[in-house]
């Protein structure tokens, strides 16, 4: 790696001020697990890194409202998310997802904010967050705004964040009658990056689907909701035919990218099958 | 910890001698070593697969503060005028000269004390090439339309490669021919003829310690610390390059963080020496994991195999043609091509055999030896072929193999009589563990199950030499000097057990001296599962020599025959104090008759045969093509196991490595450029990929082996791939002829079978 | 090149080091403290050969900026065991034959130690999940699982 300057501000305001929006070689660093890879590969050669690790305040807190709504500080580690009793209670799918996300060492260092801001379509947290209807709070020089994670991710390694905007927290709404699952398919070894990720969060009213949020990731340029499949599921009871139709709809609407982990045609077939598997898994998870 | 016991040392599962150093993190590896005043090298590599170098601009790199020097191939010539190296051909330049032959070939080097500075500077080098047509496929290369090298210059260093010839106008480094009986006549009269073609992909060793060498040139001598599986050859080759006698070149080998064939012959050592000579400072070349992908790999192959059966199902003829994709430099490819060529027709008793095995140059990263010396590529083809024939003939795959099996006392394809090969026991044991003759549940719905088996045979590389010294100090403690490199296979422990057995002392008390060519005698190399046999004999002979000298010392000091006086007492009696040494030496080289150049036949192809096989049970998800290996059985003939626990872990480790090569490992290329040169994109088996496994040896005895033993390291690689492919066919009725067996490949085959091929988007 | 002084606890001793922002933890341990048990292999945090404990948590030392170690408690493989005895996890690795070349072994041992702190009686799945981010090219995985179970049994038995 080439030499760079490392700033370690104590406040958000200071951090934002240290980021020059016109200089792409200045970036914030949180856990740094993803950024370090880019720097070691020479694809990112920073002039200055602005570390968020010494920020004061509540950036690492994880709290739950009485409703079950979760507030997760952006600097909370993925391991903290995995082991938080609040998360276990209110959004167990997040804990299950963390267990197979990268590895223990990465989860100990990588942060919630970083996992969302990096915009990497292969990551596990974004599709799950979108399926759960999660939102992020973002701070920039001109104040604070909130946006859905779904709107945060705009493309392949692209987000709606301006370069001097920072995610400060993630809000995961209460999952009242919801059941959710996230399945990922690896085509190399078991610990490979996924060829396909499918997250499904379903609200049931009796046996009928009241609302469904279905997200595809890894095979697409960004974690993306599958609107046609969702519409098809809404108001339906879960059975083989409905799942098959949902799979067909998903396969028809997703914009799939082929790569080393599978051709686009094959990943589309996987998606067709995994929509049903994810929904069944969600149904079986019963908010455990 | 296990108590050290004298007495029976053979057959004891002695914990590894170096265990403490390894678990405490204190074992030293070349990659993390440093010398005072050392400079670190960073290599600038070719970005074109084949091209003439027009210019290399190193000005900007040289100007980076902290850069000591930047060198190109022309600079190397100042200290080594003929800077070409290699074990079979002197074809590989230390840094590219005139031409580059593959993407990733070293072209220039930055030296700096701070590796980050070297890293930064190397990015500033600019090279301009006149691009030439390139050839990547081995069958295409055999047509000689695009020539990788203008001229081929044989090295003639190794006894078994003396036959290599200099050639022009060809990409073929070696073509091995074997002709036995009358194949054409046999095919003409055969009742059934089958012909199939198989391919294997390019994979690599990926030792976790990437190649690393440090050279310290002192004017009249040079010391090289290096991660090498063969320091004796490195010394010979460096001495040749420098025009020096060998005694001025010293090779020291710390622990090796894995080898599997990747650290054989000569790799980074010549570059490190040249840099140290130019800089007059110690110079270190330590590769990153990405650079490993540009260094040495396993040969991809195309194998066309044709078999004729008589009306009773006996194999009467077999014709084999194998094209080995050797990449841009021959490395040891010619030996792979020839030695594995010996057994390309498989462990079957066939009177009429024709084998053609071609070592080909292409514009890809070089290929060499990888755990099996070519045998896994061959077994993949001939054992899939065997199953395909059995299936077509409606024969049981086990019965068909047994009917045609090559047994002790019968001539193998080379004409050498098979001896001490427990291959039938191996096959029977695999079948027994699989309960082959019992009904098997093939599953239903979208999860289908199947099982398969496969066996393979290998001739060990020959002729090769090992020399050893056993040194007994005046207190009776024993030190062994043996050049075998323990890169994790447990050879130090096995050597200590053999010496302990002869001298009747506990293996745990024997010390093996770290490898240093100034003190350690010659050994041909730690490769091809040869060490336990060859070095095993050398240390046995050295220990026996020492034992005879102990007896003569006892006589000299007046002890009666068979007295139990402690050794230290004998020394005291002779020297009047704790002084003196007993030095025993041993040297071993088995007999060998080179194959006839016209027929490939020889009465003595190998001092011992290696036989092993695998059985697999698999489950296939027909909706996705996903293959799960439910159970993997590996059975081998290792002769008499010296250390059963280490033998088992060797079998298990080899099988799991081959499992990666079977299921998903593959180097992807785009115009000659590796597109997945990292552990993020080139996946190897992890802990979740381990199937239920059984690893066993069969009762056997190698009559000419040390204490009945023979080599182990490669055995469990032989049968894994075809056993799994055969099981897939059993499960879902599709036959895959190319590795790896990814889910997508299986899915596409299922769709093809259903008459609904998957259309690409 | 600007450097800074970082202060931290290393294997129980308070130490300081001069580091540049682009130095990672493993290279600082190797070059300034001659500790080579944590080693860079894949360079991407996937193999675990560079595992180091920071405040009791395993991290990939090759992806961890040394500057971030300021003020923390760092433990490396060299801290395990005493002058005359190995750590029980090290003993279990030896007795189970849980390594071959040994390059990845320190990483596995450190991970396994933390695993037992969090899960005193881990199931096979717990072990595999926890160690799934450590790779062994010699593939001593079955023996590693056995070693962790052996160490767990002995720890429970006291």
Protein described:
The complex is a heterotrimer of chains A (288), B (761) and C (158). Chain A is built from twelve helices and 14 strands. Chain A is an alpha+beta fold and 288 residues long. Chain A starts with a strand and ends with a helix. Chain B has 761 residues and is of the alpha+beta class. Chain B is 26% helix and 25% strand. Chain B has an eight-stranded mixed sheet, sandwiched between helices. A five-stranded mixed sheet of chain B has the order 11-20-19-18-12, sandwiched between helices. In chain B, helix 11 packs parallel to helix 18. Chain B starts with 18 loop residues before the first helix and ends in an 8-residue tail after the last helix. A five-stranded mixed sheet of chain C has the order 2-1-5-3-4, sandwiched between helices. In chain C, helix 2 (88-95) packs across helix 5 (141-157). Chain C starts with a strand and ends with a helix.
Pick out its properties.
heterotrimer, A: 288 residues, alpha+beta, 5-stranded antiparallel beta sheet, 4-stranded antiparallel beta sheet, 12 helices, globular, B: 761 residues, 8-stranded mixed beta sheet, 5-stranded mixed beta sheet, 33 strands
Main beta-sheet annotation of chain A = 5 strands, antiparallel
What integer is the average pLDDT of chain B? 96
Parts with pLDDT < 50 across at least 5 consecutive residues of chain A: none
Helix content of chain B: 25-40%
Query: Which sequence of strands runs across the widest sheet of chain B?
Result: 3-7-1-16-13-14-15-27
Q: How many beta-strand elements of chain B?
A: 33
Output the structural class of chain A.
alpha+beta
Characterize the quaternary organization of these chains.
Answer: heterotrimer
Q: Give the tally of β-strands of chain A.
A: 14
Q: How many helical elements of chain B?
A: 19
Tell me about the biggest sheet of chain B?
8 strands, mixed
Share of helical residues of chain A = 25-40%
Structural class of chain B: alpha+beta
Following the backbone from N to C, one meets helices and strands of chain A in this order, namely EHEHEEEHHHHHHEEHEEEEEEEHHH
Rg of chain A computed from alpha carbons, rounded to a whole number of angstroms: 19 Å
Please state the overall shape of chain A, judged from the principal axes of the Cα atoms.
Answer: globular
């Amino acid at each position: 790696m080439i030499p760079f300057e490392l700033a370690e501000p104590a406040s958000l305001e200071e951090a934002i001020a240290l980021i020059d929006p016109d200089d792409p070689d200045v970036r914030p660093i949180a856990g740094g697990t993803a950024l370090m890879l880019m720097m070691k590969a020479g694809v990112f050669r920073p002039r200055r890194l602005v570390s968020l690790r010494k920020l004061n305040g509540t950036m690492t807190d994880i709290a739950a409202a009485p409703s079950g709504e979760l507030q997760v500080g952006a600097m909370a580690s993925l391991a903290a998310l995995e082991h938080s009793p609040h998360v276990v209670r209110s959004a167990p799918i997040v804990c299950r997802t963390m267990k197979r996300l990268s590895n223990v060492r990465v989860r100990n260092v990588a942060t919630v904010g970083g996992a969302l801001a990096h915009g990497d379509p292969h990551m596990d947290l974004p599709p799950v967050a979108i399926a759960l209807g999660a939102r992020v709070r973002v701070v920039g020089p001109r104040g604070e705004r909130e946006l859905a994670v779904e709107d945060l991710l705009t493309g392949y390694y692209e987000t709606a964040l301006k370069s001097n905007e920072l995610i400060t927290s993630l809000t995961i709404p209460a999952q009242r009658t919801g059941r959710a699952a996230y399945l990922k398919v690896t085509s190399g070894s078991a610990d490979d990056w996924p060829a396909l990720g499918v997250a499904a969060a379903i609200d049931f009213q009796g046996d009928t689907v009241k609302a469904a949020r279905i997200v595809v990731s890894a095979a697409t340029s960004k974690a993306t909701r599958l609107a046609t499949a969702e519409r098809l599921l809404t108001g339906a009871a879960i059975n083989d035919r409905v799942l098959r139709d949902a799979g067909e709809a998903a396969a028809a609407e997703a914009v799939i990218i082929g790569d080393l982990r599978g051709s686009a045609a094959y990943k589309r077939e996987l998606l067709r099958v995994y929509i049903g598997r994810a929904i069944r898994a969600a149904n079986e998870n019963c908010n455990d | 910890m296990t108590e050290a016991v004298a007495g029976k040392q053979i057959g004891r599962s002695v914990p590894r001698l170096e265990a403490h150093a390894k678990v405490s993190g204190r074992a030293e590896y070349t990659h993390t070593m440093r010398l005072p005043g050392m400079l670190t090298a960073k290599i600038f590599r070719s970005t074109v697969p084949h091209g003439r170098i027009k210019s290399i601009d190193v000005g900007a790199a040289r100007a980076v503060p902290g850069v000591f020097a930047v060198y190109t191939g022309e600079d190397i010539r100042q200290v080594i005028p003929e800077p070409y190296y290699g074990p079979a051909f002197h074809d590989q330049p230390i840094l590219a000269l005139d031409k580059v032959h593959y993407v990733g070939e070293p072209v220039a080097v930055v030296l700096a004390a701070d590796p980050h500075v070297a890293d930064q500077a190397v990015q500033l080098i600019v090279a301009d090439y006149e691009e030439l047509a390139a050839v990547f496929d081995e069958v295409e290369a055999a047509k000689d339309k695009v020539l990788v090298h203008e001229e081929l210059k044989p090295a003639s260093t190794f006894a078994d490669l003396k036959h290599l010839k200099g050639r022009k106008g060809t990409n073929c480094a070696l073509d091995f021919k074997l002709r036995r009986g009358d194949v054409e006549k046999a095919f003409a009269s055969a009742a059934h003829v089958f012909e199939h073609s198989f391919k294997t992909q390019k994979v690599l060793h990926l030792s976790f310690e990437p190649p690393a060498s440090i050279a310290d040139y002192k004017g009249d001598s040079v010391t090289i610390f290096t991660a090498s599986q063969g320091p004796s050859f490195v010394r010979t080759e460096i001495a040749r390059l420098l025009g020096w006698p060998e005694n001025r070149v010293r090779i020291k080998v710390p622990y090796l963080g894995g080898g599997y064939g990747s650290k054989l012959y000569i790799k980074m050592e010549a570059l490190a020496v040249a840099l140290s000579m130019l800089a007059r400072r110690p110079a270190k070349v330590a590769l990153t994991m990405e650079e490993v992908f540009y260094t040495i790999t396993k040969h991809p192959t195309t194998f066309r195999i044709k078999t004729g059966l008589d009306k009773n199902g006996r194999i009467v003829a077999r014709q084999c043609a194998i094209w080995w994709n050797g990449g841009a430099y021959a490395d040891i490819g010619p030996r792979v091509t020839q030695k594995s060529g010996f057994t390309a027709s498989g462990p079957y008793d066939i009177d009429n055999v024709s084998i053609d095995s071609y070592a080909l140059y292409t514009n890809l990263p070089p290929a060499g030896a990888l755990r099996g010396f070519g045998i896994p590529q061959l077994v993949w083809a001939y054992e899939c072929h065997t199953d395909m024939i059995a299936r077509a003939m409606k024969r049981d795959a086990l019965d068909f193999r047994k009917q045609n099996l090559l047994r002790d006392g019968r001539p193998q394809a080379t004409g050498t009589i098979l001896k001490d090969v427990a291959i039938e026991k191996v096959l029977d044991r695999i079948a027994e563990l699989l309960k082959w003759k019992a009904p098997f549940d093939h599953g239903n719905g979208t999860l289908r199950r199947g099982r398969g088996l496969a066996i393979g045979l290998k001739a060990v590389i020959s002729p090769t030499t090992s020399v050893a010294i056993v040194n007994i100090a005046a207190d009776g403690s024993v030190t062994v000097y043996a050049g075998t490199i323990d890169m994790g296979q447990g050879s130090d422990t096995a050597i200590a057990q053999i010496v302990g057995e002869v001298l009747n002392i506990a293996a745990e008390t024997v010390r093996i001296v770290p490898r240093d060519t100034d003190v350690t005698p010659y050994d041909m190399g730690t490769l091809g599962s040869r060490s336990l046999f060859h070095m095993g004999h050398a240390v046995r002979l050295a220990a026996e020599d020492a034992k005879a000298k102990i007896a003569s010392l006892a006589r000299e000091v007046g002890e009666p025959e068979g007295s139990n006086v402690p050794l230290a007492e004998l020394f005291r009696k002779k020297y009047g104090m704790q002084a003196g040494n007993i030095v025993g030496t041993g040297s071993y080289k088995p007999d060998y008759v080179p194959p006839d150049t016209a027929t490939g036949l020889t009465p003595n192809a190998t001092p011992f045969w290696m036989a092993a096989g695998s059985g697999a049970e698999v489950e296939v998800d027909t909706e996705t093509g996903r293959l799960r290996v439910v159970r993997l059985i590996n059975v081998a003939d290792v002769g008499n196991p010296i250390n059963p626990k280490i033998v088992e872990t060797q079998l298990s480790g080899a099988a799991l490595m081959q499992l990666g090569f079977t299921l998903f490992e593959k180097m992807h290329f785009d115009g000659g450029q590796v597109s997945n040169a990292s552990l993020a994109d080139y996946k190897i088996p992890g802990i979740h990929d381990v199937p239920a496994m059984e690893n066993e040896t069969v009762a056997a005895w190698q009559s000419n082996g040390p204490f009945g033993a023979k080599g182990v390291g490669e055995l469990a690689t032989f049968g894994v791939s075809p056993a799994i492919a055969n099981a897939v066919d059993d499960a879902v009725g599709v036959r895959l002829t190319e590795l790896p067996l990814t889910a997508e490949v299986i899915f596409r085959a299922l769709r093809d079978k259903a008459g609904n091929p998957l259309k690409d988007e | 090149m600007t450097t800074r002084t970082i202060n931290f606890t290393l294997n129980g001793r308070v130490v300081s080091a001069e580091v540049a922002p682009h130095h990672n933890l493993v290279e600082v341990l190797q070059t300034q403290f001659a500790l080579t048990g944590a080693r860079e292999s894949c360079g991407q945090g996937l193999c675990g050969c560079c595992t180091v404990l920071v405040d009791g948590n395993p991290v990939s030392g090759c992806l961890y900026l040394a500057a971030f170690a300021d003020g923390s408690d760092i433990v490396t493989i060299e801290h395990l065991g005493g002058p005359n005895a190995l750590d029980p996890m090290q003993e279990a690795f030896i007795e189970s034959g849980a390594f071959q070349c040994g390059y990845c072994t320190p990483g596995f041992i450190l991970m396994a130690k933390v695993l037992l702190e969090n899960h005193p009686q881990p199931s096979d799945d717990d072990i595999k999940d926890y160690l799934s981010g450590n790779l062994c090219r010699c593939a001593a995985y079955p023996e590693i699982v056995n070693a962790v179970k052996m160490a767990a049994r002995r720890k429970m038995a006291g």
